[in-house]
Amino acid sequence: MSDIVTLTLRAPLERTVEAEAITPDRFQALGEREIAELPVWEGARQLRLGELFDVRGDRAARVRVVGDCSRIDALGAGMSTGELVIEGRAGRYAGTRMTGGTVHVAGDAGDGAGLEMAGGVLRIDGDAGDRVGGARLGASKGMLGGEIVVRGAVGAEAGSRMRRGLIVCARAGARAGEAMIAGSIIALGDVGEDPGRYNKRGSIVVLGAVSVPAGYAYDCTYEPPHVALTLRMLRARFGVAVENGGERGRYRRYSGDMSELGRGELLVREGA
Amino acid sequence: MSAASATVEHATCLGCGCTCDDIAVVVRDDRIAEARNACPLGAAWFGDGTVPGEVRARGASVSLDAALDAAAALLAGARRPLVQLAPDISCETQRAALAIADRLHALADGVTSSTAAGGVLAAQRRGRAGATLGEIRNRADLVLFWGVDPARRYPRFTTRYAPDPPGLFVPEGRAGRTVAGVDVGEAAAPPEAEPRVRLEDGEELDALTALRTLLAERTPSSSADALAKRVAPLAERLRGARYAVVVYDGESSVPGDTRRAEGVIALVQQLNARTRAALCTLRAGGNRSGAEAVMTWQTGFPMCVDFSRGTPRYRPDDGAAAWLRSGEVDALLVVGDARAAPVLPADDVPRVIIGPRASTATPAPAVAIDTGVAGIHDGGTAYRMDDVPLPLRPSVPGPRSALDVVGALAERVRRARGERGA
Amino acid sequence: MSRLRITGGEVYDPANGVDGEVRDICIEDGRVVASIPDDAPRLDARGLVVMPGGIDIHAHVAASSVNGARRMLPEERVRDLAAAPELEDGPGRSGSGGTVPSTFTTGYRYAGLGYTTVFDAAVAPVSARDTHAQFDDTPIIDAGCFILMGNDEYLLRQIAAGERERARDYAAWLLGAAGGYAIKIVNPGGVELWKRNVREIRSIDDEVGHAGVTPRAVLETLADAADALRLPHPVHIHCNNLGVPGNVATTLDSMRAVEGRRAHFTHLQFHSYAGERGKAWSSAARQVIEVVNENRNLTADVGQVMFGPATTLTADGAVEYLLHASTGRKWLNVDVELETGCGVVPYEYRERAAVSALQWVIGLELFLLSADPWRVVLSTDHPNGGSFASYPELIRLLMDRAYRDERLKRVNQTMLAGSALADGIAREYTLGEIAIITRAGPARQLGLAHKGHLGPGADADVTIYTPNADRAVMFSTPRYVLKGGVVVVEEGQLRRAPATRRLHVRPAFDDAVTRDLRRWFDRYGTVSFDNYPVAPLRDPPVAEGA
Fold first, then answer.
1. How far is A139 from chain C (nearest CA, A)?
2. Residue C94 touches chain B, beta carbons under 8 Å
3. Burial degree of A79 (CB within 10 A; 0-12, 13-18, 19+)
4. Tens digit of each residue's pLDDT (9 = 90 or more) over A76-103
């Protein structure tokens, strides 16, 4: 038994592959050969993991994936424990529906990272695509729990319909937190058009610039202690640093969406 | 057929989603001389009933057998085939085409994902309070046209369904109904609409929010205040209606963005707390609604189905257009009128087209088999925009029927894959 | 000529007075016959239990409302995808499940439970074409549908005008036009009122939109029609005030209102509540079942609630709005063409929820206090009270008191004071009684002479179970299922999907009604009169003429 399993991509991929088999909780019970036999899918074609990757190590809940995985979807999908490190880019749906453990993408991630995630930690050092921690189109619930920390920018509909959990990013695209049911989104920088439409509850914290949607009403300006606490926690655990003025700060609080329950909040940092 | 003149009564028109079934098709010498009761759009759809009857492989005429064998070989050998249900085929043909997709472990989609997904997806999130067109005609005392004047793309909607015709509970017809309108930028409601709200494109979503905030008796935010004042009279009329109908154009959805449809759906559901209200989603013709119904009962999902692993996985984040863009589709089967299918792939993707005017597609498909048009040459069933199923009454002889060709192709595909037959 | 002898099985064939006797069943060309030559192929059923194929008298599997539910609820099916079975008689089809499965999966899963005949209980006539198309894509099971009439504006007007013969002729025409099997009434008059924004009916003598038209008049008129037309199945009634505390009053009034006419009261459980809106609920099962026990003209199915996910789906639109408003779950409503309504809301019955627990208890009380299994049969009003997939679990609850009492301890007790089940009911259903409430009883109630039994002339629809003390296990995995003499399931594996039959009626009527109907369609219809009827069905009607 080794302390880590390393998968090294044998050659660049020409077609998208779905590889939800790549999860630490599976690997920790399997030997090297068994891991190499796990199924992955190229469209309708079933392949063995070993055909795409050189597999080293066995029976470990720590997994390293080496190579450009931008065409590999569903890495760590549904994983419940252990650590999965992707030393490069990841395809779509990284960590989707995961319930525990850690997925760490050292590069960029495609659309749907942490989609409908229920627990655990998803770290992305680069940028991420649309619907990070959000809901599949047509689905009524997004992220159910856990933490997503993106060092770069995220695309549209981050945290759409999320019900619990935390999403942190440097910048967010359009329609961030659409129809949130609860949970928190923190953007250290700017946020795109129309955040929080149709929100019932939930909290969207913006340290950069944002235009406040018409569905939101101004309440007050104050220094919310929970935001400072969360930002400190983020620095301590993930090394996320807040520029201009550090963790403490005053925020304008707006509540909305008035056409829904109106119990959601938009916190916009002053002097941003 | 005889050279004499004959008339086919109660024919169903698929020119738009109104699916009027009161057309009298006058036939002379196997040509359509007139489509009585049809609107200009319908008349153009019927035309004179002539369509090409070619069977081609790479542009050259071949026998049907040869074409089917080529098509079957191409599809059975593909890694990532896509089966697309295009307009102007019957539900019976759609069912047979979807069966091929299932056997091939293919991707399958209609045209809804490219043109009208917003309403479908928003309804999957919130549901929908609707009614069949007959209820709208017989009950509606207020008809609100939201950013659409049916005159353009649904010409007989106003005279056949609402607001014009007398209804059981609206015996005065037009005089017994309020016609309200919301203009959204260029998308204007009918000229007669009063009360009327004029919105810039960017204001539509906030106007919906303001309306719903007023109806929920909450105070709009100061930034929404001006807009709220503009829509307040409309809110009053909606609240005071006995049976309010909101009509909007389902074919105007922005891919990936469900906000507008969701706002309209939520508005109508909310109205039902106090009065009765129904949402009417206008849909284009060619039996699009039928394709959604068939995909839903056969797979469980109305569009964007991926059979690649042997089960129907729902992929609304993708769909035909996205799959074609991805460059991974290596064979495309279009069943129906390919001109109305979304984004056709780059020339290097081999296409099999089975449907009306297949042979006119450019560049020349790998295989093109012209068939009749459902409702003109082929019989069967088509669904109206409100999912009411109607029979089709062919009026003139056409080329081979789409259903027969797709059935024959299914058999060849089975043989090409070395499976036992049905 | 295809023949098969099922040998040495323990046969439960209540319609022919056979209760667990070891005997052979002989099959020739899809039918049961008295005898076949000894050299005919044999199927060894020694040590196994043999019953007729199951018959579901009330489910929602192929109506336009069902497809509406599928379309609205992708999330429950994306988690339950089904691959195509490998069949010996042609390609199988993939699909998806959940509480409202796709058509192919519906057929396969019913057959997998030993069911070979299913009725869709609520079809809007204008959408009947949709239902028959869905049935065409529902493999293995024979099927029929009930046609919604209790809120049909044309019918209500005939009643208002005192034209009860015309109402009967209309019902007959409508059954033929829709390819239906029976007359269905849902919340008589109440759905039309909902369309007029009147959301409550106090009694069956409230007027429903027309002078002199009341739920009582609708019940009388259509019960008379079903009798006069000698329909194989009586009028199939979903009473007013479904799911409303205190609705026992309207339920009992409706049962009295039919006065000796044949009538089937469906999903009784949803109509057996004492109490008042906003106040405590309690069980009225005893009152309701006693009336059923005493009146031989009445039949019923229970509509048991099973804990877990469900999809509420009904023509009773008003009910679904209330459910949407109280749960906040998504909501589909369709008001249908001056005919009927439709509502859908997803729902979950929880052991720990007081109302769910009460509903679960009431259903079991109706089963256990029923004096005549031939007249009170099994249903969950699929998918309203729970999926048909939960039938084996329900059978275990009926057959195994120890298990039932143990389950009872776990449920929320808040509303169970004075309930008969809480006081303890010893009854355990026997295999013979289960064969009645899932086979012979529904067949008799439906007037299906060739189904629900294993006597000569019967369709050779047979289910063969491996005995097991755990009845849920026994009934969820039949050893063999035969449909029309063909083995369709073996050891839980689907083997074949033979052609299915459509069960429908074509009663005669005075043609004068169609002349009047043409005028009605021209004035108020949006479908041409000539385009309204479904295409002629391939199979001959079960009954025609009058």
1. 6
2. yes
3. buried
4. 999 999 999 999 999 999 999 999 999 9
